[in-house]
Amino acid sequence: MMKRYTMKLIGMLMLLLSLSACKNGEATTVNQLPKEVKIGIIRVPNDKQVAISTQKFDQYFKDKGIETEFLFFDSGVAANQALVSGSIDFAEMGYTNGVVALAKKLPVELIWLHDVIGENEALVVPENSKVQSVADLKGKKIAVPFSSTSHFSLLKALEEAGIREEVSLLDMETADIVAAWERNDLDAAYTWEPTLSHLKDQGRVLLTSRDLAEKGYMTSNIDLVHKDFAKKYPELVVDYLSALTDGQNVYFEEPAKAVAQVSKDLNLTEEETLKQMNMSQWLRPEELISNDYLGTNAKPGHFHQVFLDTAEFLVEQKSIDQIPSEQEVNEFINSEYIEKLIERK
Fold it and tell me: What is the CATH number of domain 30-117+219-344?
């Protein structure tokens, strides 16, 4: 009798543990959570950096016993390589490298759009240059990180000016652009902050990505998640987006606090930080799933077409071999986590 009672008690305990481990088939127990989450960053004053600087990630990860490690990547190319190797779980990058990730069938999906790029990416020439317009760059040497948002914007600007095939483009990382700029080896460069500010100290801006966005060439910074991580920890992906949203809220509701914290972490003056923050358009979750941007999984938005258009550009540049299908784009851009975030909030 005692044995039967003991077995029944054990069975009930196992059932309770099983129920606590599952919520709609997605949540996991504390013992099953990862010990660490590795996050790729680009160190710019956006929603992600505000979330980092104001410890918003701690509320969703550290409180669950999960450590967060933030790893800087100078380009989306390097971030994609880290995702392929499985050495990071999330990565921030210009969306053009997201298109590359899709075309090369990397095990990732797009879950967030940080901002629409504005004056924080621009085409710059030396202060003493005789170049006064994009058309004047005919026959000149221009540096830009290939397959980046800046590369896409630069080619559209050259195309608009009718000189796309009449310039020498140099594929350079941002640090190399700075070194070449200081040696006076370049006629122009298209790059992003904080490198951009360094070039502007001894240069002039010819046009910005905001100028090009107004002509229909929108560029943006995105966030990707490794599919294995998302499949195993879907609620942690929503937690991740919650931290980003909390970072946005600090910026919108307590801008002085956001600027002060981010300036300290990025070693920028508060004036520089605020200026860079104001250079791009930050998007709330509700805006992200509108038709103008990501849309929903059921009804894709305008950004899906931007992805397809950019894929054509990357095929021309031989950065990818073929244009992904519309279905592949729709599957790659996964708005499910943003929708769950909005439901949770």
Answer: 3.40.190.10
